[in-house]
Design brief:
about 625 residues; alpha/beta; Rossmann fold; Arc Repressor Mutant, subunit A; Structural Genomics Hypothetical 15.5 Kd Protein In mrcA-pckA Intergenic Region, Chain A; 3 domains; 8-stranded mixed β-sheet; 6-stranded mixed β-sheet; 18 helices; about 10% strand; binds adenosine-5'-triphosphate; binds zinc ion; nucleotide-binding; metal-binding
Length: about 625
């Protein structure tokens, strides 16, 4: 009784009633999701669905307060439900231990809710929920945090921009040649070491080669001339059956592995002389005479072991030890099974940190502490419980406004690490951001151009890399227009598997071809125009361009690459999928929809009043007169 009266008292009878009768879906039961669920239960929501695919890890316990030690290893969704019910046993909570990206949760599933609240940690799932909410016409409250920064926004089809309206900063990826032949930054060595882990102990992936790449266009002229080059195959990989079988046949002996990777392969690279014409040469290391190279003044933190930069000798010792431990673990696995790299596993992390530093030394790159490597390798920004709590509070406030049909009050809100000049740390935008009319997802007739080499791209890579990884589809069907001939069918029985190995050109897909792509799971149709292009050494294998204006060779389009990189072709970077947050202060993200050249960052940096600049903007809603000049307060 008392509880009911309190809730109605705070919300008012009308909203209280709406809250009582609404049905809500929470996607994700992690840092933000737990907070949201608690807020919903305490605000009087009575019918809540929650879904999470994961189980509880020890590292979640510091901030995901619905979970305790005894829950480690159990389903997040199920435990979150049980814990939240303790606050109010009269609430109905339906929990799914499952991925939201599965066929069961299609448009009809989404349609039963009044509002969907995202509490996810990766772009793939966020894009997917975005599409399903657009397709089912259900409002979506999207949220994310990164350390002290956070963001909450409402997405309603036709009224606001969608999650995919503005291009996200491309996930970092590096050309294979840089990783394998010519690293120049610590991250290149870290990525290489993670690949090495997978080649030796993890899931072997042909895109994660660690041996010298003799097909490097920069060295093509003289690759293969050295005495050692006899074993290079036509794909440019030094033939050693596979790195793994080579290591296995040598019983993972640290000295042999070391010599192969850090001496022989480096000698081989040196033989590709063209690579070193304008670069500093790498220096091969000899196992029996590792030079004494100490921390040489690099930052050593405040004495914390993890924050010291290991000496080269220490690196080699740690490499040996972790290599031995990992191979012992690996041998215990059933035939065909493999390990999964985990930043929190001591040996896995030590292996990557030591290999990265040894390689860095060889290439004259600064070595890093284990701590720094861990955050780079895991691509981690530590989660802050308070930011999650603030964001989750805002999410539920947004949900209340949606129920009251006050969409105009749901401007995007930013939580900032430092106060702005008005001393605000929780900063709303002044207006709802309108949809981008050229959005490849929510515009009335979505269309993109994909530039690639039609003679090299295989159908399989087109599906996996372009349609799935870059355009985030789940089960695409592809028809070549205007004939309507089926190139790819998501129905396995209909699909001619032998076609996957063909190139696009083999299937008559050439420069200027038009494809109709349909993902029935997402209710998403997209027209894809193909533009033939042969990528250079450091170019991604393909790129996706949503805004046709960017293709015109005008000065502006050339000088402003924003928006031209919706998807990064070479998706072999160091990104983990649970890393990208919607909030960054990277100007890549700050593109105003509909305008290819105006960036908010630019607006703030220039002292020209925003009002003035806005009038020149082609976009109707953004051109609305503003009250004062500092309306958009997001920018660092
Ligand atoms: N496709 C998906 N379907 C359902 N839940 C998902 C999906 N993708 C991610 N999630 C869940 O979203 C939640 C995001 O929470 P959070 O950002 O706190 O991550 P975490 O994995 O709990 O912590 P951390 O990544 O910091 O170790 C996670 O519990 C994750 O399992
Ligand atoms: Zn959109």
């Amino acid at each position: 009784m008392g509880e009911m009266a309190t809730a109605a008292g705070v919300l008012g009878a009308d909203l209280h009633n709406k809250v009582n009768n609404s049905k809500i879906l929470v996607v994700g039961a992690g840092g933000i999701g737990c907070e949201i669920l608690k807020n919903l239960v305490l605000s009087g929501f009575k019918d809540i669905y929650i879904i999470d695919l994961d189980t509880i890890d020890v590292s979640n316990l510091n901030r995901q307060f619905l979970f305790h030690k005894q829950h480690v290893g159990k389903s997040k969704a199920m435990v979150a439900k049980e814990s939240a019910l303790k606050f109010n046993p009269n609430v109905s909570i339906t929990a799914y231990h499952d991925s939201i990206i599965s066929t069961e949760y299609g448009v009809n599933f989404f349609k039963q809710f009044n509002v969907v609240l995202n509490a996810l940690d990766n772009r793939v799932a966020r894009n997917h929920v975005n599409r399903l909410c657009l397709a089912s016409g259900i409002p979506l409250v999207e949220s994310g945090t990164a350390g002290y920064e956070g963001q909450v926004e409402l997405i309603v089809k036709g009224k606001t921009k969608c999650y995919e309206c503005s291009p996200k900063a491309p996930q970092k990826s590096f050309p294979g040649c840089t990783i394998r032949n010519t690293p120049s930054e610590p991250i290149h060595c870290i990525v290489w070491s993670k690949y090495l882990f997978n080649q030796l102990f993890g899931e072997e992936d042909g895109d994660e080669e660690v041996s010298p790449d003799t097909a490097d266009p920069e060295a093509a002229a003289n690759a293969g001339e050295s005495a050692m080059a006899t074993d290079a195959n036509e794909k440019g990989n030094v033939e050693r059956t596979s790195t793994r079988s080579w290591a296995q046949s040598n019983d993972y002996d640290p000295e042999k592995v070391f010599t192969k990777l850090f001496h022989d392969d480096i000698k081989y690279l040196l033989s590709m002389a063209d690579l070193w014409k304008e670069r500093r040469k790498p220096s091969p290391l000899i196992w029996s005479s590792i030079p004494e190279i100490a921390n040489n003044g690099q930052s050593t933190g405040q004495g914390l072991k993890d924050q010291k930069v290991w000496s080269l000798k220490e690196c080699v010792e740690i490499f040996s030890e972790s290599c031995r431990n990992l191979s012992a673990q690996f041998k215990k696995l059933p035939e065909g099974d493999h390990m999964v790299w985990d930043k929190d596993d001591v040996d896995s992390m030590n292996f990557v940190a030591s290999c990265a530093n040894i390689r860095a030394h060889i290439f004259n790159i600064q070595r890093k502490s284990r701590f720094e490597i861990k955050s780079m390798a895991g691509n981690i920004i530590p989660a802050i419980a308070t930011t999650n709590a603030i964001v989750a509070g805002l999410v539920v406030m947004f949900a209340l406004k949606v129920l009251q049909e006050e969409l105009e009050k749901c401007q995007c809100v930013y939580v900032r690490s430092k106060p702005n000049h008005k001393l605000q740390q929780i900063v709303p935008e002044k207006y709802l951001s309108p949809p981008n009319p050229k959005c490849a997802v929510c515009s009335p007739k979505p269309e993109v151009t994909v530039r690639l080499d039609v003679n090299k791209q295989t159908v399989k890579d087109f599906v996996e890399d372009v349609l799935k990884k870059s355009l985030n589809m789940v089960a695409p069907d592809v028809m070549l227009m205007p004939s309507g001939s089926i190139i790819i069918s998501s129905d396995e029985e209909e699909m001619d598997i032998s076609r996957l190995a063909l190139t696009l050109a083999d299937c008559n897909i050439i420069d200027g071809s038009m494809l109709e792509v349909d993902d029935f799971l997402q209710n998403y149709n997209l027209t894809v125009k193909i533009k033939h292009r042969e990528p250079g050494r450091d170019d991604p294998l393909f790129d996706v361009i949503a805004d046709p204006d960017l293709l015109k060779p005008t000065e502006e389009a050339e000088s402003d690459k924003n928006g031209s990189k919706n998807g990064e072709g070479d998706a072999k970077g160091y990104e983990d999928d649970d890393d990208d947050l919607i909030m960054t202060v990277d100007d890549e993200q700050l593109v105003i929809p509909g305008s290819s050249s105006t960036k908010r960052k630019v607006e703030e940096e220039a002292s020209v009043p925003v009002k003035k600049r806005r009038t020149g903007n082609s976009n109707e809603m953004l051109a609305t007169p503003v009250e004062d000049d500092d309306d958009i307060a997001i920018i660092e």
